[in-house]
Amino acid sequence: MIGHTNLVRELKSLRKGRGVLSGRIVDRVGPALRAACEIGADDDVPVIRRKVTDRLIELAGLLPDDMGEAALIAFALKPETRHPLYQDRVSWAADQVNCDIRTIRRRVDEAIGHLAELAEEALASATAPGWHTSELHVVLSLDGPHPELLELHRVTATKDNLAELELTTTCPTDTPRVLYGGTLAGNNRLLLPTALPRGASHAFAIRAQLADTLSTLVHIPARPCGALDLRVRFGPSDVPSEARAIRGPARDSSGSLNTSPFLINEAGEIHLHFTDLAPGHPYGVQWTH
Length: 289
Description:
The protein is of the alpha+beta class. It contains seven helices and 13 strands.
């Protein structure tokens, strides 16, 4: 699950300033909101803003009228409440219904709690059936003419007659190639060689060349993941000066990542291993030269 506490924290951060119209919305949308709004790693700012807006309007419509209205106002989702500050929107709402500002603030907080619950329920119903990742091995090679990605997946079916999977790679790429274990189809689907019964496992491998220069390798699982083994190899003349492991969001309310220094070995490689990955949380490594 994406975590009720994490989602409430990110929603309260998002309501600040101009809400969904914030110029730095990418910094306001953390792992929990990304999972709740189905935001991909390669989505740009307009797509992120649209997905967040659409999901919040959808969920607010499921709330009682007074709480739904409070949510729309809090995130500047109503044209008449696009004030630059959250407190200005709260004051506007209080004037409209002739009540105390503190009443509106409590109503917004209550609405955000319910929005988080609804988002969790929607994500669980969308992703729970089907399959989960037992283990994922990711190798990023940066010592050749082009960055190259190799992913070895093992998944387990959680329903009978599983015939296809949604395929997403750790790094954005337009040219994934299946080495074994299935056939690529449209809409990022992997067709399995044979349908799997519940409890059966299946392995497949993906290889791709990447066009962009990278400074991070991060996996945000959409489904439960038992283990992630991650390796990055740098060229002899391009070893970073610093690397930091990413182990989910920070435990405070800052919305930042939980990072720690990580040693690059004498071969110019990074090797990290994670277990019991939570959906919607980031795991990986970032580096600087």
